[in-house]
Write a structure and sequence with these properties.
- By secondary structure, this protein is an alpha/beta fold.
- The protein has a single domain, classed as TIM Barrel, CATH 3.20.20.
- It has helices at 37-49, 65-69, 78-86, 105-118, 133-136, 147-166, 223-232, 243-259, 281-293, 297-308, 334-346, 351-359, 371-383, 397-414, 427-430; strands spanning 9-13, 54-57, 93-99, 123-128, 173-176, 181-183, 193-194, 199-200, 215-218, 235-238, 268-277, 365-369, 389-394.
- It has an eight-stranded parallel beta barrel with strand order 1-2-3-4-9-10-11-13, surrounded by seven helices.
- Helix 7 links the parallel strand 9 (215-218) and strand 10.
- Helix 3 (78-86) runs parallel beside helix 4 (105-118), helix 4 packs across helix 6 and helix 13 (371-383) crosses helix 14 (397-414).
- The longest helix has 20 residues, at 147-166.
- The chain is globular and about 75 Å long.
- Bound molecules: flavin mononucleotide (FMN).
- Flavin mononucleotide is lined by residues 58-60, 97, 128, 130-131, 219-222, 224-225, 237-239, 272, 333-336, 391.
Protein backbone atom coordinates (compact mmCIF):
# COMPACT_ATOMS: atom_id res chain seq x y z
CA UNK A 1 0.00 0.00 0.00
CA UNK A 2 1.34 3.46 -0.90
CA UNK A 3 1.45 6.40 1.47
CA UNK A 4 0.31 8.74 -1.39
CA UNK A 5 2.45 11.58 -0.07
CA UNK A 6 0.98 11.34 3.42
CA UNK A 7 3.63 11.42 6.14
CA UNK A 8 3.36 10.39 9.77
CA UNK A 9 3.48 12.60 12.86
CA UNK A 10 5.95 11.74 15.59
CA UNK A 11 5.65 12.96 19.16
CA UNK A 12 8.26 12.26 21.84
CA UNK A 13 6.57 11.28 25.11
CA UNK A 14 9.32 12.66 27.35
CA UNK A 15 8.90 10.72 30.56
CA UNK A 16 11.60 11.01 33.22
CA UNK A 17 14.28 8.37 32.60
CA UNK A 18 12.10 6.35 30.24
CA UNK A 19 8.86 4.45 29.96
CA UNK A 20 10.00 1.28 31.63
CA UNK A 21 8.92 1.46 35.27
CA UNK A 22 12.46 0.71 36.46
CA UNK A 23 14.25 2.75 33.80
CA UNK A 24 15.91 4.83 36.53
CA UNK A 25 17.81 1.73 37.75
CA UNK A 26 19.26 0.88 34.35
CA UNK A 27 23.07 1.41 34.37
CA UNK A 28 23.02 3.78 31.36
CA UNK A 29 20.18 5.93 32.75
CA UNK A 30 21.03 9.49 33.75
CA UNK A 31 18.92 9.33 36.92
CA UNK A 32 21.12 11.81 38.76
CA UNK A 33 19.91 14.41 36.23
CA UNK A 34 16.18 14.01 36.87
CA UNK A 35 15.94 17.52 38.34
CA UNK A 36 18.53 18.98 35.95
CA UNK A 37 17.03 21.18 33.22
CA UNK A 38 19.86 20.41 30.78
CA UNK A 39 18.71 16.76 30.63
CA UNK A 40 15.31 17.83 29.21
CA UNK A 41 16.87 20.54 27.07
CA UNK A 42 19.15 18.01 25.33
CA UNK A 43 16.30 15.58 24.66
CA UNK A 44 14.05 18.35 23.29
CA UNK A 45 16.85 19.67 21.06
CA UNK A 46 17.58 16.17 19.79
CA UNK A 47 13.87 15.68 18.94
CA UNK A 48 13.91 19.03 17.13
CA UNK A 49 17.05 18.15 15.16
CA UNK A 50 15.19 14.99 14.09
CA UNK A 51 12.26 17.19 12.90
CA UNK A 52 9.78 15.52 15.21
CA UNK A 53 6.40 17.25 15.53
CA UNK A 54 6.37 17.71 19.28
CA UNK A 55 7.39 16.69 22.76
CA UNK A 56 4.82 15.84 25.38
CA UNK A 57 4.87 15.91 29.19
CA UNK A 58 2.34 13.86 31.16
CA UNK A 59 1.29 14.74 34.70
CA UNK A 60 -0.05 13.20 37.84
CA UNK A 61 -0.67 15.55 40.73
CA UNK A 62 0.24 13.32 43.66
CA UNK A 63 2.90 11.01 44.95
CA UNK A 64 3.48 8.92 48.07
CA UNK A 65 6.43 7.90 50.24
CA UNK A 66 6.07 4.34 48.92
CA UNK A 67 6.05 5.47 45.28
CA UNK A 68 9.13 7.64 45.62
CA UNK A 69 10.99 4.78 47.30
CA UNK A 70 10.75 3.09 43.90
CA UNK A 71 11.54 6.16 41.86
CA UNK A 72 8.14 6.85 40.38
CA UNK A 73 5.70 9.75 40.52
CA UNK A 74 7.96 12.76 40.67
CA UNK A 75 8.16 15.28 37.88
CA UNK A 76 8.25 18.98 37.10
CA UNK A 77 5.00 20.87 36.53
CA UNK A 78 4.63 20.51 32.73
CA UNK A 79 3.89 24.07 31.58
CA UNK A 80 6.74 25.43 33.70
CA UNK A 81 9.25 23.01 32.19
CA UNK A 82 7.87 23.64 28.68
CA UNK A 83 8.31 27.40 29.10
CA UNK A 84 11.99 26.83 29.84
CA UNK A 85 12.30 24.44 26.87
CA UNK A 86 10.60 27.04 24.65
CA UNK A 87 13.56 29.33 25.22
CA UNK A 88 16.13 26.80 23.97
CA UNK A 89 14.23 25.42 20.95
CA UNK A 90 12.70 27.06 17.86
CA UNK A 91 10.38 24.74 16.01
CA UNK A 92 9.31 21.72 17.98
CA UNK A 93 5.78 21.67 19.47
CA UNK A 94 5.40 21.70 23.27
CA UNK A 95 2.48 19.76 24.73
CA UNK A 96 1.73 19.85 28.45
CA UNK A 97 -0.83 17.96 30.52
CA UNK A 98 -3.22 19.89 32.73
CA UNK A 99 -6.24 18.44 34.53
CA UNK A 100 -9.75 19.88 34.20
CA UNK A 101 -10.67 18.38 37.58
CA UNK A 102 -8.21 20.35 39.70
CA UNK A 103 -7.81 23.71 37.95
CA UNK A 104 -9.83 26.77 37.00
CA UNK A 105 -10.42 27.53 33.30
CA UNK A 106 -9.21 31.12 33.56
CA UNK A 107 -5.82 30.08 34.93
CA UNK A 108 -5.41 27.31 32.36
CA UNK A 109 -6.44 29.50 29.40
CA UNK A 110 -3.95 32.10 30.55
CA UNK A 111 -1.14 29.61 31.13
CA UNK A 112 -1.41 28.06 27.65
CA UNK A 113 -1.90 31.42 25.99
CA UNK A 114 1.31 32.59 27.69
CA UNK A 115 3.15 29.46 26.52
CA UNK A 116 1.86 30.02 22.98
CA UNK A 117 3.28 33.56 22.97
CA UNK A 118 6.55 32.59 24.63
CA UNK A 119 7.12 29.76 22.12
CA UNK A 120 5.87 31.65 19.02
CA UNK A 121 2.93 29.33 18.43
CA UNK A 122 4.10 25.95 19.67
CA UNK A 123 1.79 25.28 22.65
CA UNK A 124 -0.41 22.21 23.02
CA UNK A 125 -2.63 21.12 25.92
CA UNK A 126 -3.18 17.46 26.79
CA UNK A 127 -6.56 17.65 28.47
CA UNK A 128 -7.06 15.12 31.27
CA UNK A 129 -9.82 14.60 33.81
CA UNK A 130 -7.45 12.71 36.24
CA UNK A 131 -8.53 9.42 37.75
CA UNK A 132 -7.22 8.69 41.22
CA UNK A 133 -8.32 9.33 44.79
CA UNK A 134 -4.84 10.29 45.91
CA UNK A 135 -4.87 13.23 43.49
CA UNK A 136 -8.32 14.34 44.67
CA UNK A 137 -7.03 14.24 48.24
CA UNK A 138 -4.54 16.99 47.38
CA UNK A 139 -7.43 19.22 46.30
CA UNK A 140 -9.84 19.31 49.24
CA UNK A 141 -11.74 16.16 48.23
CA UNK A 142 -12.04 12.74 49.88
CA UNK A 143 -12.05 10.92 46.55
CA UNK A 144 -12.16 11.37 42.81
CA UNK A 145 -15.52 12.61 41.45
CA UNK A 146 -17.29 10.01 39.36
CA UNK A 147 -16.32 9.43 35.75
CA UNK A 148 -19.33 11.01 34.03
CA UNK A 149 -19.24 14.07 36.29
CA UNK A 150 -15.55 14.58 35.47
CA UNK A 151 -16.25 14.50 31.75
CA UNK A 152 -19.28 16.82 32.16
CA UNK A 153 -17.03 19.25 33.99
CA UNK A 154 -14.33 18.85 31.33
CA UNK A 155 -16.78 19.82 28.60
CA UNK A 156 -17.81 22.96 30.40
CA UNK A 157 -14.15 23.69 31.17
CA UNK A 158 -13.38 23.53 27.44
CA UNK A 159 -16.32 25.74 26.53
CA UNK A 160 -15.03 28.37 28.96
CA UNK A 161 -11.38 28.21 27.91
CA UNK A 162 -12.32 28.44 24.24
CA UNK A 163 -14.47 31.49 24.91
CA UNK A 164 -11.58 33.06 26.82
CA UNK A 165 -9.10 32.39 23.99
CA UNK A 166 -11.58 33.99 21.59
CA UNK A 167 -12.38 36.90 23.88
CA UNK A 168 -9.94 39.11 21.95
CA UNK A 169 -10.51 39.47 18.23
CA UNK A 170 -7.41 39.29 16.05
CA UNK A 171 -7.36 43.02 15.26
CA UNK A 172 -8.15 44.18 18.81
CA UNK A 173 -4.72 45.69 19.49
CA UNK A 174 -4.39 49.17 17.97
CA UNK A 175 -1.21 50.51 19.58
CA UNK A 176 -2.35 53.98 18.51
CA UNK A 177 0.14 56.14 20.40
CA UNK A 178 -1.12 59.40 18.89
CA UNK A 179 -4.72 58.98 20.06
CA UNK A 180 -3.87 57.00 23.20
CA UNK A 181 -5.77 53.86 22.17
CA UNK A 182 -3.96 50.64 23.10
CA UNK A 183 -6.82 48.32 22.13
CA UNK A 184 -10.25 48.57 20.53
CA UNK A 185 -12.69 47.80 23.35
CA UNK A 186 -15.37 46.80 20.80
CA UNK A 187 -13.14 43.86 19.89
CA UNK A 188 -12.50 42.63 23.41
CA UNK A 189 -15.42 40.63 24.84
CA UNK A 190 -16.60 39.71 28.28
CA UNK A 191 -17.79 36.13 28.04
CA UNK A 192 -20.34 36.03 30.91
CA UNK A 193 -20.25 32.27 31.27
CA UNK A 194 -22.63 30.93 33.92
CA UNK A 195 -22.75 27.15 34.09
CA UNK A 196 -22.99 24.12 36.35
CA UNK A 197 -19.35 24.27 37.47
CA UNK A 198 -17.99 27.67 36.47
CA UNK A 199 -18.99 31.32 36.49
CA UNK A 200 -16.50 33.38 34.52
CA UNK A 201 -16.85 36.97 33.33
CA UNK A 202 -13.75 37.35 31.16
CA UNK A 203 -12.16 38.60 28.97
CA UNK A 204 -8.76 36.94 29.23
CA UNK A 205 -6.00 39.35 30.20
CA UNK A 206 -3.99 38.40 27.11
CA UNK A 207 -4.76 38.95 23.42
CA UNK A 208 -5.38 36.08 21.02
CA UNK A 209 -2.20 34.00 20.84
CA UNK A 210 -0.17 33.08 17.71
CA UNK A 211 -2.04 29.80 17.12
CA UNK A 212 -5.38 31.46 18.00
CA UNK A 213 -5.78 28.72 20.52
CA UNK A 214 -3.29 26.04 21.61
CA UNK A 215 -3.57 22.65 19.92
CA UNK A 216 -5.88 20.41 21.96
CA UNK A 217 -4.82 16.81 22.70
CA UNK A 218 -6.85 14.25 24.60
CA UNK A 219 -6.42 10.61 25.55
CA UNK A 220 -9.67 9.27 26.98
CA UNK A 221 -10.77 6.00 25.47
CA UNK A 222 -14.00 5.32 27.39
CA UNK A 223 -17.29 6.17 25.65
CA UNK A 224 -17.29 9.57 27.39
CA UNK A 225 -13.62 10.02 26.49
CA UNK A 226 -14.12 9.24 22.80
CA UNK A 227 -17.15 11.55 22.57
CA UNK A 228 -15.15 14.30 24.23
CA UNK A 229 -12.25 13.87 21.78
CA UNK A 230 -14.61 13.81 18.83
CA UNK A 231 -15.99 17.19 19.90
CA UNK A 232 -12.87 19.08 20.95
CA UNK A 233 -9.56 17.36 20.23
CA UNK A 234 -7.19 18.31 17.42
CA UNK A 235 -5.17 15.18 18.15
CA UNK A 236 -5.69 12.06 20.22
CA UNK A 237 -3.19 9.96 22.17
CA UNK A 238 -4.21 6.38 22.74
CA UNK A 239 -2.89 3.14 24.26
CA UNK A 240 -3.68 0.07 22.15
CA UNK A 241 -2.33 -3.45 22.61
CA UNK A 242 -2.72 -4.76 19.08
CA UNK A 243 -2.92 -3.50 15.51
CA UNK A 244 -6.53 -4.79 15.27
CA UNK A 245 -7.60 -2.84 18.37
CA UNK A 246 -5.81 0.28 17.14
CA UNK A 247 -7.54 0.05 13.76
CA UNK A 248 -10.97 -0.44 15.36
CA UNK A 249 -10.35 2.55 17.65
CA UNK A 250 -9.19 4.69 14.72
CA UNK A 251 -12.30 3.86 12.69
CA UNK A 252 -14.67 4.38 15.62
CA UNK A 253 -13.24 7.77 16.60
CA UNK A 254 -12.97 9.07 13.03
CA UNK A 255 -16.67 8.20 12.55
CA UNK A 256 -17.58 10.05 15.75
CA UNK A 257 -15.62 13.07 14.48
CA UNK A 258 -17.50 13.05 11.15
CA UNK A 259 -20.75 12.61 13.08
CA UNK A 260 -20.04 15.94 14.77
CA UNK A 261 -19.65 17.65 11.40
CA UNK A 262 -15.87 17.89 11.74
CA UNK A 263 -13.33 16.85 9.12
CA UNK A 264 -11.79 13.57 10.37
CA UNK A 265 -8.53 14.29 8.53
CA UNK A 266 -8.08 17.30 10.76
CA UNK A 267 -8.00 15.24 13.94
CA UNK A 268 -4.83 13.14 14.24
CA UNK A 269 -4.76 9.82 16.06
CA UNK A 270 -1.46 8.81 17.69
CA UNK A 271 -1.20 5.40 19.38
CA UNK A 272 1.73 4.94 21.74
CA UNK A 273 4.59 2.60 21.01
CA UNK A 274 7.01 1.68 23.78
CA UNK A 275 10.23 0.00 22.70
CA UNK A 276 13.71 -1.32 23.40
CA UNK A 277 16.08 -1.21 20.42
CA UNK A 278 18.89 -3.70 19.71
CA UNK A 279 21.28 -4.30 16.81
CA UNK A 280 19.75 -7.75 16.50
CA UNK A 281 16.41 -9.19 17.63
CA UNK A 282 18.31 -11.27 20.17
CA UNK A 283 20.10 -8.28 21.63
CA UNK A 284 16.83 -6.34 21.92
CA UNK A 285 15.16 -9.23 23.72
CA UNK A 286 18.11 -9.57 26.08
CA UNK A 287 17.82 -5.86 26.92
CA UNK A 288 14.11 -6.27 27.66
CA UNK A 289 14.81 -9.28 29.91
CA UNK A 290 17.59 -7.39 31.64
CA UNK A 291 15.13 -4.58 32.43
CA UNK A 292 12.56 -7.01 33.86
CA UNK A 293 15.20 -8.23 36.29
CA UNK A 294 15.32 -4.79 37.93
CA UNK A 295 11.58 -4.89 38.68
CA UNK A 296 10.31 -5.02 42.24
CA UNK A 297 7.11 -7.05 41.92
CA UNK A 298 5.73 -6.08 45.34
CA UNK A 299 5.80 -2.47 44.21
CA UNK A 300 4.43 -3.32 40.75
CA UNK A 301 1.45 -5.05 42.38
CA UNK A 302 0.73 -1.96 44.47
CA UNK A 303 0.89 0.21 41.34
CA UNK A 304 -1.40 -2.09 39.39
CA UNK A 305 -3.82 -2.30 42.34
CA UNK A 306 -3.95 1.51 42.47
CA UNK A 307 -4.43 1.77 38.73
CA UNK A 308 -7.29 -0.74 38.72
CA UNK A 309 -8.84 0.25 42.05
CA UNK A 310 -8.66 -3.29 43.51
CA UNK A 311 -6.25 -4.92 45.97
CA UNK A 312 -4.25 -7.61 44.11
CA UNK A 313 -1.71 -8.22 46.90
CA UNK A 314 -3.15 -11.59 47.94
CA UNK A 315 -2.77 -13.11 44.47
CA UNK A 316 0.27 -15.30 43.85
CA UNK A 317 2.61 -14.09 41.11
CA UNK A 318 2.25 -17.42 39.33
CA UNK A 319 -1.55 -17.37 39.25
CA UNK A 320 -3.65 -15.76 36.54
CA UNK A 321 -5.55 -12.56 37.23
CA UNK A 322 -8.94 -13.47 38.79
CA UNK A 323 -12.17 -12.60 37.02
CA UNK A 324 -12.43 -8.83 37.36
CA UNK A 325 -15.20 -8.16 34.87
CA UNK A 326 -17.18 -6.18 37.49
CA UNK A 327 -14.32 -3.64 37.50
CA UNK A 328 -15.18 -2.46 34.02
CA UNK A 329 -17.29 0.35 35.41
CA UNK A 330 -14.46 1.74 37.52
CA UNK A 331 -14.62 5.47 38.27
CA UNK A 332 -10.89 5.80 37.51
CA UNK A 333 -9.25 5.41 34.10
CA UNK A 334 -11.90 3.12 32.57
CA UNK A 335 -10.36 2.24 29.25
CA UNK A 336 -6.92 1.38 30.68
CA UNK A 337 -8.51 -0.95 33.25
CA UNK A 338 -10.44 -2.72 30.48
CA UNK A 339 -7.30 -2.97 28.35
CA UNK A 340 -5.36 -4.62 31.19
CA UNK A 341 -8.13 -7.14 31.92
CA UNK A 342 -8.38 -7.98 28.21
CA UNK A 343 -4.61 -8.37 27.85
CA UNK A 344 -4.39 -10.74 30.82
CA UNK A 345 -7.34 -12.82 29.66
CA UNK A 346 -6.59 -13.01 25.94
CA UNK A 347 -3.02 -14.21 26.51
CA UNK A 348 -3.79 -16.14 29.68
CA UNK A 349 -0.99 -14.34 31.53
CA UNK A 350 0.05 -15.03 35.11
CA UNK A 351 0.17 -11.98 37.37
CA UNK A 352 3.98 -11.89 37.01
CA UNK A 353 3.83 -12.06 33.20
CA UNK A 354 1.22 -9.31 33.20
CA UNK A 355 3.37 -7.11 35.44
CA UNK A 356 6.36 -7.57 33.11
CA UNK A 357 4.24 -6.65 30.10
CA UNK A 358 2.90 -3.54 31.82
CA UNK A 359 6.32 -2.60 33.22
CA UNK A 360 7.52 -1.70 29.73
CA UNK A 361 4.79 0.78 28.86
CA UNK A 362 1.84 0.76 31.29
CA UNK A 363 -0.45 -0.92 28.77
CA UNK A 364 0.85 0.70 25.57
CA UNK A 365 1.94 -1.46 22.67
CA UNK A 366 5.43 -2.67 23.55
CA UNK A 367 8.11 -4.17 21.32
CA UNK A 368 11.77 -5.02 21.43
CA UNK A 369 13.47 -5.14 18.06
CA UNK A 370 15.96 -3.81 15.53
CA UNK A 371 15.55 -0.32 14.03
CA UNK A 372 14.23 -1.92 10.83
CA UNK A 373 11.70 -3.99 12.74
CA UNK A 374 10.41 -0.87 14.54
CA UNK A 375 10.21 1.10 11.28
CA UNK A 376 8.30 -1.83 9.69
CA UNK A 377 5.80 -1.84 12.52
CA UNK A 378 5.20 1.93 12.34
CA UNK A 379 4.82 1.75 8.57
CA UNK A 380 2.33 -1.10 8.80
CA UNK A 381 0.09 0.64 11.35
CA UNK A 382 0.32 3.95 9.49
CA UNK A 383 -0.50 2.58 6.04
CA UNK A 384 -3.29 0.28 7.19
CA UNK A 385 -5.71 2.60 8.92
CA UNK A 386 -4.54 2.40 12.54
CA UNK A 387 -2.63 5.67 13.01
CA UNK A 388 -1.84 9.16 11.68
CA UNK A 389 1.36 9.10 13.66
CA UNK A 390 2.82 7.82 16.91
CA UNK A 391 3.51 8.68 20.48
CA UNK A 392 7.14 7.59 20.78
CA UNK A 393 7.87 6.02 24.17
CA UNK A 394 11.49 4.89 24.59
CA UNK A 395 11.88 2.49 27.52
CA UNK A 396 15.30 3.89 28.45
CA UNK A 397 15.06 7.52 27.45
CA UNK A 398 18.65 8.49 26.73
CA UNK A 399 19.49 5.13 25.19
CA UNK A 400 16.46 4.07 23.14
CA UNK A 401 15.53 7.60 22.10
CA UNK A 402 19.00 8.29 20.74
CA UNK A 403 18.87 5.03 18.79
CA UNK A 404 15.39 5.90 17.52
CA UNK A 405 16.57 9.27 16.22
CA UNK A 406 19.83 7.97 14.78
CA UNK A 407 18.52 4.75 13.20
CA UNK A 408 14.72 4.57 12.96
CA UNK A 409 13.92 8.12 11.77
CA UNK A 410 16.40 7.99 8.83
CA UNK A 411 14.82 4.67 7.82
CA UNK A 412 11.33 6.26 7.89
CA UNK A 413 12.67 9.21 5.87
CA UNK A 414 14.21 6.85 3.33
CA UNK A 415 10.77 5.26 2.93
CA UNK A 416 9.26 8.78 2.52
CA UNK A 417 7.11 8.25 5.59
CA UNK A 418 8.51 11.13 7.65
CA UNK A 419 9.52 14.72 6.87
CA UNK A 420 13.17 15.70 6.32
CA UNK A 421 12.49 19.28 7.38
CA UNK A 422 9.78 21.40 8.94
CA UNK A 423 7.53 23.22 6.48
CA UNK A 424 5.97 25.54 9.07
CA UNK A 425 6.80 27.05 12.41
CA UNK A 426 3.83 26.35 14.67
CA UNK A 427 2.60 23.13 16.29
CA UNK A 428 -0.61 23.59 14.27
CA UNK A 429 1.50 23.68 11.06
CA UNK A 430 3.35 20.48 11.97
CA UNK A 431 0.08 18.57 12.53
CA UNK A 432 -1.50 20.22 9.45
CA UNK A 433 -4.37 21.68 11.43
CA UNK A 434 -6.45 24.72 10.43
CA UNK A 435 -6.48 27.91 12.49
CA UNK A 436 -9.80 28.15 14.37
CA UNK A 437 -12.38 30.83 13.61
CA UNK A 438 -13.16 33.24 16.45
CA UNK A 439 -16.64 32.53 17.87
CA UNK A 440 -17.16 36.22 18.69
CA UNK A 441 -16.59 37.43 15.14
CA UNK A 442 -19.78 37.41 13.09
CA UNK A 443 -19.22 37.27 9.36
CA UNK A 444 -20.47 40.41 7.68
C1 LIG B 1 -0.51 8.74 25.96
C2 LIG B 1 -1.38 8.97 27.12
C3 LIG B 1 -1.02 9.94 28.04
C4 LIG B 1 -1.79 10.17 29.16
N1 LIG B 1 -1.37 11.10 30.05
C5 LIG B 1 -2.04 11.24 31.22
C6 LIG B 1 -1.56 12.09 32.23
O1 LIG B 1 -0.56 12.75 32.06
N2 LIG B 1 -2.25 12.16 33.38
C7 LIG B 1 -3.40 11.45 33.61
O2 LIG B 1 -3.98 11.56 34.69
N3 LIG B 1 -3.90 10.63 32.66
C8 LIG B 1 -3.23 10.49 31.49
N4 LIG B 1 -3.68 9.63 30.55
C9 LIG B 1 -4.95 8.95 30.79
C10 LIG B 1 -6.07 9.56 29.98
O3 LIG B 1 -6.17 10.94 30.12
C11 LIG B 1 -7.39 8.93 30.35
O4 LIG B 1 -7.76 9.25 31.66
C12 LIG B 1 -7.29 7.46 30.24
O5 LIG B 1 -6.93 7.14 28.92
C13 LIG B 1 -8.59 6.81 30.61
O6 LIG B 1 -9.62 7.44 29.93
P1 LIG B 1 -11.08 7.07 30.20
O7 LIG B 1 -11.36 7.36 31.64
O8 LIG B 1 -11.85 7.91 29.23
O9 LIG B 1 -11.16 5.62 29.93
C14 LIG B 1 -2.96 9.41 29.39
C15 LIG B 1 -3.33 8.45 28.45
C16 LIG B 1 -2.56 8.22 27.33
C17 LIG B 1 -2.99 7.18 26.33
Amino acid sequence: MSNQGRTMHLNLFLYNMGHHEVSWRYPESLSHRLMDFTYYKQLAQKAEQAKMDSIFLADRISTSPKAVEHGSLISFEPTTLLSAIAAVTNRIGLIGTVSTSFNEPYNVARRFSSLDFLSNGRAGWNIITSGSDDEAQNFNLAGIPDHSERYRKAREFLEVTMKLWDSWEDEAILLDKVNGMFADKQKVHEIHHNGEFFNVRGPLNLPRSPQKRPVLFQAGTSEDGKDFSALYADAIFTAQQTFEDARAFYKDVKERISGNGRNPEQVKILPGISFVIGNTEKEAEERAEELAEFMNFDHSIVQLSNRMGVDLSSISLDDPLPNLSDLKETQGHQSRTNLIIQLAQSENLTLKQLLIRLGGGRGHYTISGTPKCIADELEFWFLNGAADGFNIMPQIMNRDFNLFVDLVIPELQRRQLFRRDYSGSTLRDHYQLPFPVNQFVTSS
